[in-house]
Amino acid sequence: MSEPAAGSEPAAGSEPAAGSGPAPPWAMLAELTHGCPLHCPYCSNPLALIPRSRELATADWCRVMEEAAALGVVHAHLSGGEPLLRADLAEITGAAARAGIYTQLVTSGVGLGRARLEELVTAGLHSVQLSVQASTAGASDLIAGTRSFAAKERAAGLVREAGLPLGLNVVLHRHNLDSVEEIVALGVAWGAERIELANTQFYGWALRNRRTLLPTRDQLARARESVERWRERLSGVELIWVVPDYFDGVPKPCMGGWGAISLTVAPDGAVLPCPAAYDLPLEFPSVREHSLAWIWRRSAAFEAYRGTAWMSEPCASCPRRDVDFGGCRCQAYALTGDARRTDPACRFAPDHRLITELVESAGDEALVYRRPGRLTRPSARPAASDEDLSGP
Length: 392
Hints:
It is built from 15 helices and eleven strands.
């Protein structure tokens, strides 16, 4: 029998055999909701957020966890938005844990009280990654668009009290790069075992705010020096510095290769090879209609840029084609309108001038916060309200 073509659903009972086709993914980003109490202007979620009414039901998410484990996934990031907005988060966590998947809660910390954390730990939660916007309450609340720093500090204490590994994720940009020393010190004081300093990746809301989020070269140089000083004296804390490819001329690998090591399940069940791929001109299959195994092994969306055969020059003959995979497909599309072009972040890309022009034109502008219509300058402090906690 011939293999089904990419994009066609196999007949019942003809699920691709394990070991055929691409290697299985080891990681899954489970975007349980796009609802979020924060309004971060660097958010990589799409501008058109998926409403709560279209989210997968509990049973669907539990089935997805079972299918993910059967496919080979060993690590699931329970994310969003803010996954704590899902009342069934413990049930979903439990389903993943029973399937043998390591679970990490990716959270703002808002809404993570002692009772909720105990419920999640009982369900099988393994670790927590807490987002942090800055080292002080004033700066953090300004960037987040609402008062949330105190909740983050409480959440960090509860996680350590529960004995779970704690990681911090800090998105860096023009408005907090000069405080890297203090940010790392905060993470150490809070007991973090891993601190990820992730320079802004320009998708979604971050793309909308690119001009005012792009740092200066001097800021980046000082921040790198600060990170190296901390690495020399830190013990027992993993300190990650995610390179900003807009400045280094070396494109970031496309998710370790498109459809190679991870997948993303959106709140409505769409499955993407990359969490930033929402805007690409591809039809993403849904777990409501297809199995996760078929989506990974046979869908047209996952085959689109898998491997290297799709590449044109200069990528096709580049010795780094199996290292950076031509760079980011989402970034190539956002900047050139063609997802097959070499990522302009690469110094050898025909469109590299687009990157250099953007870097040179960066400057302070009004931030557009994650909630559509909210315009606030960096010097203004948004007020918190009950509405801020409701999500879209």
